Amino acid sequence: MSAASFLNPTRQTRVLPGFGLSLGYTLVYLSLIVLIPLAAVFLKTASLGWAEFWAVVTSPRVVASYKLSFGASLLAAAINAVFGLMLAWALVRYTFPGKKLIDALVDLPFALPTAVAGIALTALYAGNGWIGSKLAPLGIKVAFTPLGVLVALVFIGVPFVVRTVQPILEDLETELEEAAASLGAHRWQTFTKVILPILLPALLTGFALAFARAVGEYGSVIFIAGNIPMVSEITPLMIITKLEQYDYTGATAIAVVMLVISFALLLLINLLQAWSAKRTGRNR
Amino acid sequence: MKPALRTLLLSSVLAFGLGSASLASAQTTLLNASYDVTRELYKEINPAFASWYKAKTGKDITINQSHGGSSKQALSVAAGLEADVVTMNQSTDIDILVERGKLVAADWRKRFPHDATPYTTYSVFLVHKGNPKKIKDWSDLAQPGLSVIVPNPKTSGNGRYTYLAAWGSVIAKGGSEADARNFVTKLFRNVPVLDGGGRGATTTFTQRELGDVLVTFENEAAQIARELGAGQFDVVYPSITIDASPPVAVVETVVAKRGTATEAKAYLDFLYTDEGQKIIAKHWFRPRSEALLKANADRFPPVKAFKVEELLGSWSEVQKKHFADGGIYDQIVVNR
What we know:
Chain B: GO terms for molecular function: molecular carrier activity. Chain B: Its main location: periplasm. The complex is a heterodimer of chains A (284) and B (336). Chain A is mainly alpha-helical and 284 residues long. Chain A is 76% helix and 0% strand. Chain A has two domains: 30 residues; 231 residues, Orthogonal Bundle (MetI-like fold). With 336 residues, chain B is an alpha/beta fold. In chain B, strands 7-6-8-5-9 form a five-stranded mixed sheet. Chain B has a four-stranded mixed sheet with strand order 2-1-3-11. The chains are: A mainly alpha (284), B alpha/beta (336).
């Protein structure tokens, strides 16, 4: 869209009418559902003095929980980026019996109540569980450790990468790969120089979504984490703990820190994505 | 609309839980906001109360129940959940309703017998059959290498009672505050998992088979030992423990608004009747009725117990000293 047509939107003919109405609706809706509640979080925190706020959000237990929450979320999103890409690839490029079923299974973590996922994962990975009992002799403890948190976060993040990468892969023409091959590229070169750059923006979007989801996750993690202070407490638990003590402002103070860090990280990922989209010459 | 059709419609609406103030005239309803572990108890109390009330007054009444973490429930009521009565597991959860907009009368403890606690329970130990680790008393829980399952004192009343029971067991035997702190620190070093609530801790101990001992309320422990995991577990009564009487109160602002003051009082009174006490005893809570307690002596062995207020100070002081952020509990678990 050129600058002139942007400044004068009524000139351009559109398929659907009602630009003013849509924009107004969008703004009101976003304000009511997103902006005002978030602003309330900041306002509530404002009743704390700066010194108090700082004391709450930098207490050692809370800082340990940031490390776990953000660290495990980033790692989980990274794992999902790699294996989600593989999953999407398998689903798009190969045919095999039960493909439709597996395709549907991918969405399950979206729909499942997270508490159910948490209980199921804990039952599997506890010392006496199916998988836990096999890992225990190797000295690997999953349930009730930070590793358990990672497992839960990987679980709930799976669909995000698969579902963002899948349509791009479907659009990707095999002719491109054939052309690369006919020009003498190895398969690895084709993958890194031809396929990956095209997929990168979508992959980053999936990564960002999986990360964002993981940071806020509570239900599935709380069962498997073990909730040991300084070791396996996630930040959302610290918020709930404050609420249990009727400490609304303390809870919102931690929430504000989570919001700010999450927003900064998502912004960074978005910039990366924009940069990679520009570099590969694809418009989003 | 034909009356029959109307009744059908009304009852179906009620059945879906949508009937509230507008339908109050059709049938009186009460909402009881309670904590997690009483779900089964009130499921049996409620119909018993309804028929008792019908026999007494000729009126129909329906009780709806809402369960959740005790403090969470208190917060919901403070935030406007229209509960006529609250039945919590800790008096701080009712005190908060006095502080927040006087939802409950300040003298709520005096409105019903036994400080408004219709039954009591104690923190006890649940161990594996035959007690292989020979756990007899609180001091045994601090031995190195033992694994102790307790709910998180930060999020669970059950957990707070466990912590205070351990602390008080030292004080009651003449120990100093420093001794108590030293002991509780050692005990919490042995805790591998801190579940959010009592039921979560029970699952960890019985289903995940984690831990040598579970510290929980007598009603939970006895039920597991005799019913859920019959033959797998034993209940151990320590030499002294904590009296964790769950308190009840009428939410004055709500009953005034809904016109249910009489019914709400009758409902809580019913808990003290023989019939109510019998159901309470059946669910392994200790009844207040001396006769019933005697009749069930095999289920409820005598226990030496202390009340928080008698030994450790008022609940608000205890809360501030031990469980507030940066309090003794935090110091213990952060540096353990």
